[in-house]
């Protein structure tokens, strides 16, 4: 027996329309919770901080070996990227007396950190960078990897507070236009991964965030995946202030409520979750998260 075309099967077209409506309006993103971590206090050692209460750090680097693959300027680029990451998370990055330095010995680095009045020395050790070029048909491709280590040392006692070692790779699905561009990509990825290991701690918990079409909340969700909840809050608050479509308001308030709860701002979180419930009173997820934050203060669910 021949089947009717979809357009002539009312039950099928209705089901497809309902499915499209569901996928368009009820998209969510499961995010593993990472939270900001202060590596200067990780070992429970008090830090005096700067005059404004910030933590003062100095970033210095060891010399790369000849066979490591790092060029002279690569180590400086790695330092600058790491310094930017520390600045955006509330640290004061101090410059050594006399300005930026090149690769140093550990003994010289410790002396410079003390002279700079820093609370901690961020010691960068480049270990490996490899880029190789290959030709496939008429196209030229670059493949490669980079690795490095970072130590956080308390100035004075030289107690090791935190250490991280990471390796990154070039994507095999992307064609990089030049070796210099491929090198920049590797250095940026390595710096980002080292900074994430030092400044954020991954938990075993998950939260389910709203990610409705057309993806206006996605930038904040990407920030949340990195553990940057304060930046996600700023992004979603800007959406509310910008008067985004009212149909998105409950989702924005819901995501804000979760982010605020994870940031320890419980009362604000409850206000936003309550507003989300007023907009979607039948949502079992909104109701469950509101109750969890109200009773326990945390929105997550262990999986």
Task: Report what the structure shows.
The structure is a single chain. The chain has 303 residues and is an alpha/beta fold. It has 2 domains: 55-201, Rossmann fold (3-Layer(aba) Sandwich); 211-302, Serine Threonine Protein Phosphatase 5, Tetratricopeptide repeat (Alpha Horseshoe). 42% of the residues lie in helices and 25% in strands. It contains 9 helices and 8 strands. A hairpin with a 2-residue loop joins strand 4 (120-136) and strand 5. Helix 5 (218-225) runs antiparallel to helix 6 (229-241), helix 6 (229-241) packs antiparallel against helix 7 and helix 8 (266-279) packs antiparallel against helix 9.
Number of spatially distinct domains? 2
Count of runs of 4 or more consecutive helical residues: 9
Structural class: alpha/beta
**How does the major sheet shape up?**
5 strands, mixed
Name the helix and strand elements from N-terminus to C-terminus, one letter apiece: HEEHEHEEEHEHHHHHE
CATH architecture field of the largest domain: 3-Layer(aba) Sandwich
Spans of 5+ residues with little confidence (pLDDT < 50)?
A: 1-25, 43-52
Q: What's the CATH class of the largest domain, please?
A: Alpha Beta
Q: Can you list the strand order of the major beta sheet?
A: 3-2-4-5-6
**Rg result:** 25 Å
Kindly state the number of beta strands. Answer: 8
Kindly report the name of the CATH homologous superfamily of the largest domain. Answer: ABC-type transport auxiliary lipoprotein component
What name does CATH use for the topology of the largest domain? Rossmann fold
Q: Whole-Å distance between the termini?
A: 47 Å
Average pLDDT metric: 81
